[in-house]
Design a protein that fits this description.
Layout: H1 2-11, E1 19-21, H2 27-39, E2 43-47, H3 59-67, E3 75-78, H4 81-88, H5 91-95, E4 100-102, E5 124-129, H6 136-149, E6 156-161, H7 166-179, E7 186-190, H8 194-202, E8 206-209, H9 215-218, H10 223-230, E9 235-237, H11 243-246, E10 254-255, H12 261-273, H13 275-292
Parallel strand pairs: 1-2, 2-3, 3-4, 5-6, 5-8, 6-7, 8-9, 9-10
Length: about 300
């Protein structure tokens, strides 16, 4: 890294440049900070979460957040209002303020078909995407939702897309047995290609994104939410963090009360039973994504 940055500095002396650093809460922040300061290369720090308040974060990582990460940067790009507020509350920032640019997700519209090409799905499919092991809480919540939904809607399948460990698979199967959801109602697809992922989103009856009233959810604006919206299919999620600033209930999304599986099931059932509402919300979500999240 040192040689590459030195070469960059020497070969581009007359050009304006900056180092965009995505690493957070790591000793690399200290190393890169000292190195770039020595080479007079400004650092722009990208921040998409606030680890100090996430359970399990090490003391070292918390110290780096509070005393190192923002000590050397010339600017920051944040994904939510909460992150901006967290940074501006630091003593490091108060002593040496720097520009902060808030930008939510950015989605490439070229990856998605035109609105006129979005058709009504032939099968009732609920789709959740993500790293199953890392977001097991979300998946187990979706299974609870499915257990509620089986009493109000029929003929649907819950597709869980993303890498899943053996331990996570066992936890999912145990949750299904506990809540009384037949394993035939869910499909663990594992990791799939980017093109297959986007096709699955575009073919879904409902796309579901559980959010929670915690720091992890409030501090982020999930990139997959932008992709969900761009797919043109209806999205069900919670009004947490910046999400409520951009989305409007029953216009371009259906909100459910966070943590309430019965309320989430009711929202999903409403979309499954009303194709007109589902299509209206899906197209409105697509329009919002094109105007707000596209690059």
């Amino acid at each position: 890294l040192a040689f590459r940055l030195l070469h960059l500095r020497l070969t581009h002396r007359s050009e304006a440049m900056a180092v965009c650093l995505h690493v957070q809460g790591d000793l690399l922040n200290l190393y890169a900070g000292v190195l770039c300061t020595f080479l007079r290369l400004p650092i722009v720090l990208e921040s998409c979460e606030w680890a100090p308040q996430i359970p399990g974060t090490s003391r070292t990582s918390k110290w780096i957040y509070g005393h190192v990460m923002f000590q050397f940067c010339s600017g920051a790009i944040v994904i939510s209002k909460m992150l901006q507020e967290k940074i501006t509350s630091l003593e490091t920032y108060k002593k040496r303020p720097f520009p902060i640019y808030r930008r939510t997700v950015m989605v490439d519209p070229k990856e998605f078909p035109n609105l006129t090409e979005v058709a009504i799905p032939k099968e009732r499919t609920l789709v959740w995407c993500g790293d199953v092991t890392s977001y097991l809480r979300d998946v187990l919540f979706m299974i609870s939702v499915g257990a509620e939904l089986q009493y109000s809607a029929s003929g649907w399948l819950l597709e869980i897309i993303g890498p899943v460990s053996d331990a996570a698979r066992r936890a999912i199967e145990e949750k299904c047995r506990t809540v009384g959801l037949p394993l035939t109602q869910i499909c663990l697809r594992g990791y799939i290609s980017r093109s297959d992922l986007l096709q699955s989103c575009q073919a879904a009856s409902v796309l579901v994104l559980p959010l929670w009233d915690d720091v992890r959810s409030r501090a982020r604006f999930p990139n997959k939410l932008g992709e969900y919206l761009m797919s043109g299919r209806p999205v069900v999620t919670s009004r947490v963090g910046d999400v409520g600033e951009y989305l409007c209930d029953r216009k371009n999304v259906l909100f459910y009360e966070q943590g309430d599986s019965a309320d989430c099931a009711t929202a999903i059932a409403g979309l499954l039973e009303d194709e007109g509402l589902a299509r209206s919300i899906g197209l409105a979500g697509r329009s919002l994504a094109e105007h707000t999240f596209a690059f």
